[in-house]
Specification:
Radius of gyration: 53 Å
Helix content: 25-40%
Distance between the termini: 165 Å
Shape: rod-shaped
Number of strands: 15
Mean pLDDT: 82
Largest sheet: 7 strands, mixed
Strand order of the largest sheet: 5-6-2-3-4-1-7
Number of helices: 6
CATH architecture of the largest domain: 3-Layer(aba) Sandwich
Structural class: alpha/beta
Order of helices and strands: HEEEEEEEHHHEEEEHEEEEH
CATH topology of the largest domain: Rossmann fold
């Protein structure tokens, strides 16, 4: 028995396939991006490496068409003419900028259009002129730049060699005179005040504290006035017997107080170590009828010749409440300094003052 084909079904299928093909073509021609196009000519004044027919055309970064043809011009061998087809209503004007852009890791070239500032610019009549060097990739631009640099170096080889030679001479001179330059810079810093001031080292004196026992007690009512001294001695600096001498190690060294006040304070402590129950008071609290110990500071300096030593000298006078002189004596002692440095000098001064303070206390107790 022979089977008959369902002619109606086959015919319907063929008709549906034909309609589908025409529908696809219609969609592709309209919604699929092959709608009505406008054609423009572009002139590149230089090579367009890698640009192919079918390459994308972007307008402000949006794809609007593709390259339809590429041609060389016989009478202008440096130029390349391209034809592009872009979607209808793409705002291509006479002021539209044209260049090549390279996209992706492989640097696929596309034609890039950029709208101009004036939206009312006239439409393109003949052709769009691409920007100069529009076809240069980053690699080509780098090669051209390196070629120019190489040309400049080649043309100026002799002057560059002379400049390098002069620079070597200059650096050699700097190396030989580095200590002098350091001194000049240090002087400028000190002059402008830009250098950080060094730390000040403060030194003090020790009071006398070792006295023989038993010893004569002090009489109550004794006062020690602030020692008198010349203006030169009213300072916290380390003094030298010659004002012309300058020693850098002493620039940042000083005593804990001005010399007259320092001597008064340490003498009071020495008297307290001798007899704290009858120790004298400061002269500014002196009442009537008391006995006053008057000190006149004469020397408190460092001598560098004929030997390096520290010297302290002062006169001491005991005056009763009516102003009569009871006793007077000059005290002076020196001690060698082991080295011309502030620490060694402070040690020597401390030794000298301790001996003098011991003598003043015992002398005062004996003649009071």
């Amino acid at each position: 028995m022979e089977t008959r084909a369902p002619f109606m079904i086959v015919g319907a299928f063929v008709l549906a396939a034909i309609v589908a093909v025409f529908g696809f073509i219609y969609w592709l021609n309209n919604a699929g991006g092959i709608g009505k196009r406008e054609t423009y000519h572009i002139v590149f004044n230089g090579p367009v490496p890698g640009l192919l027919v079918g390459a994308a055309v972007l307008f402000n970064g949006i794809r609007v068409g593709e390259v339809t043809s590429l041609d060389l011009v016989a009478d202008r061998p440096h130029d390349v003419h391209a034809t592009i087809a872009v979607a209808e209503h793409t705002p291509v004007r006479a002021n539209t900028k044209v260049s090549l852009d390279f996209q992706g890791l492989t640097g696929v070239p596309v034609v890039a259009l950029e709208g101009g500032e004036d939206a009312n610019a006239p439409r393109v009549e003949k052709a769009l002129i691409a920007e100069k060097g529009a076809g240069e990739s980053m690699t080509q631009a780098a090669r051209n730049a390196l070629r120019k640099v190489d040309n400049v170096l080649s043309e100026n080889a002799t002057p560059l060699h002379q400049a390098i030679t002069n620079l070597n001479t200059f650096t050699d001179g700097l190396a030989r005179n580095t200590p002098k330059l350091d001194g000049i810079v240090a002087g400028l810093e000190r002059m402008t005040g830009s250098v950080t001031p060094p730390r000040t080292v403060v030194y003090d004196l020790k009071a006398a504290d070792k006295f023989q026992t038993p010893h004569r007690a002090l009489k109550p009512g004794l006062f020690i006035a602030e020692p008198t001294a010349t203006t030169r001695l009213q300072t916290q600096r380390f003094l030298f017997s010659s004002d012309e001498e300058r020693h850098d190690d002493f620039a940042n060294a000083q005593w804990s107080d001005a010399l007259p006040q320092l001597v008064q304070a340490k003498l009071l402590q020495s008297f307290e170590n001798y007899d704290v129950a009858h120790a004298p008071l400061r002269g500014d609290g002196m009442g009537e009828g008391g006995v006053r110990l008057l000190i006149d500071l004469r020397r408190f300096d460092i001598a560098t010749a004929p030997e390096l030593k520290a010297t302290i000298a002062f006169s001491a006078k005991l005056v009763d409440g009516s102003g009569h002189l009871k006793a007077a004596r000059i005290f002076e002692q020196s001690a060698p300094i082991t080295g011309l440095a502030a620490a060694q000098a402070a040690t020597a001064f401390d030794q000298v003052f301790t001996a003098l303070a011991h003598d003043v206390v015992t002398w005062t107790a004996s003649v009071q």
